[in-house]
Amino acid sequence: MLLEALYHVPRDKWAYAYDPKTIHLRVRTKRNDVDTVVAMTGDKYDWDSTYFEITMEKAATDEMFDYWEAAVLPKYKRLSYAFRITSGKETIYMLDNGLYRNCPAPTGGYYEFSYIHEIDVFKVPDWAKDAIFYQIMPERFANGDPSNDPKGTQPWGGQPTTDNFFGGDLQGVLDHLDDLLDLGINAIYFTPLFTSPSNHKYDIVDYKQVDPHFGDNELLKQVVEACHSKGIRVMLDAVFNHCSELFPPFQDVLKHGEKSKYADWFHINQFPARVENGIATYDTFGFFGNMPKFNTANPEVKQYLLDVAEYWIKEIKLDGWRLDVANEVDHHFWRDFRMVVKNANPDAYIVGEVWSDSLAWLVGDQFDSVMNYPFADKVLEFFNGGMDGLTFANKMGTILMRYPQQTNEVVFNMLCSHDTPRLLTRVGNDKRRMKLAVVFLFTFMGTPCIFYGDEVGLTGGGDPDCRKCMEWDPKKQDRELYDFYKLLIGLRKKNKALREGRFRFLKAEPGNPNIIYERMDSRVHFTIWMNNTDKPQVLSHPMVTNDWKDALSGDNVPTQNGTMNVSLDPYGYRILYRNLTK
């Protein structure tokens, strides 16, 4: 076997407490190079009577490596362990202090998980595992109160630009909560609601006031109370990386320069603070001079923003925060942010906007989750014909092995957002491809999110075109697509196995764009069959039992001589299940 490929460290995603009684271990080996990996476990002070071997399961694979996983329940919350790795007649023992051909006597040099301290266990909100999120840009969702429309508001449904308004507001959201309930939504993610000169509100002037074009603080409280009464959680957008140039402390810096008491609230590289030839003399979000960047290491700035985070949790009983441009804010700030938010509401859900590998924020001291753009990119590439089944399975394996299981169970999965083209547009306006991607979204690990209007067929290119007004005329909605979303949401909500069960690919071959995968827990076993081609296909896979049913129609689906043969239309899918308990 290739010894250089063997990898394990006793921390982060490789060895972690999943709950107060369980430790998860992971090992990496070269792809298709190893037959078995066995975790040799015991207590360092009582090895002989606590010794227990666990044959690890191959949990995922990518282009180069296999990843093996096991859950261990140590008797005394401590764990010493080593790995016995076998390939044919070759056996290697992997310990903390090296690799051996013969097993060293325990427990010197073994890996250690010193103790499961419950306070250190990375806890995520259980409700997020069951959540179906719906992302709303209030300015574009519904105009429920024309009296608060901005000057120059355009007729609903017009072409969006970077600076036009259509009058959407919180009353519009309140008016349509029952529509969301009918769809099956049980969580809302609002883009920013606070006072701001723009239509998107990511340049905030007053962090403790709802923008008057949306309503007021009291109306927001009514919206949240109404949501809670209907079983809908609410998550707001925290823009703590930057503010508006109209933010009063920044205006003070513009006026008084170095003498301003707020001079250190921002990253001013040269006074006076100004924009020259499109480049600001202060740090900004991107190169937008109207969005100066906060110095979150400044104690006054930190306290101001943490007060804002706590204020809304307590004021409206907020269920979570989505953190804008989270990767550009210092880790010290986010650690304090988590403590403040979790003290105010231990069940709050914290989602960071990070577009790449985010493990540094997901080890229990900062975020619960991140917006999983890598998931969206790979899913859409696959269903747009950009890779075969094996490559897709490898990419998904990489994504699953990035984070601990508790994060995988609540990672924020979406297929588009206010920052990307619309889903239907991203799949070339092919509704069949769109449905395959949505089926995968609702049958994969993580917390799914729908961008408002996708369920009725809204299209749109990149910003600002993706930020169209919601279509409320039933005659202009794709009601068949709506019913499809409603059906898939209902299936996921009804079956815990689709939310927390094990995920594995059963069939993903080179040169073949079709896939079969499974989700299962101790009660139900699902298999999902997908024809990712424009021609009818028959997919086959060995099945030992003959008790499968179609999860959407309820029809029996028989096997033939131990093999399941499933006929699929072009870009068709089928979701099968069998009960594991009588």
UniProtKB/TrEMBL annotation:
Any Gene Ontology biological process: carbohydrate metabolic process
Keywords: Glycosidase, Hydrolase
GO terms of molecular function: hydrolase activity, hydrolyzing O-glycosyl compounds
Pfam families in UniProt: Alpha-amylase, Alpha-amylase_N, Malt_amylase_C
InterPro entries named in the record: GH, GH13_cat_dom, Glyco_hydro_13_lg-like_dom, Glyco_hydro_b, Ig-like_fold, Malt_amylase-like_C, O16G_dom_2
Domain Glycosyl hydrolase family 13 catalytic: 135-492
SUPFAM superfamilies referenced in this protein's UniProt entry, alphabetically: (Trans)glycosidases, Glycosyl hydrolase domain
Protein family (similarity comment): Belongs to the glycosyl hydrolase 13 family.
Annotated protein name in UniProt: Alpha-glycosidase
Organism: Paenibacillus rhizosphaerae
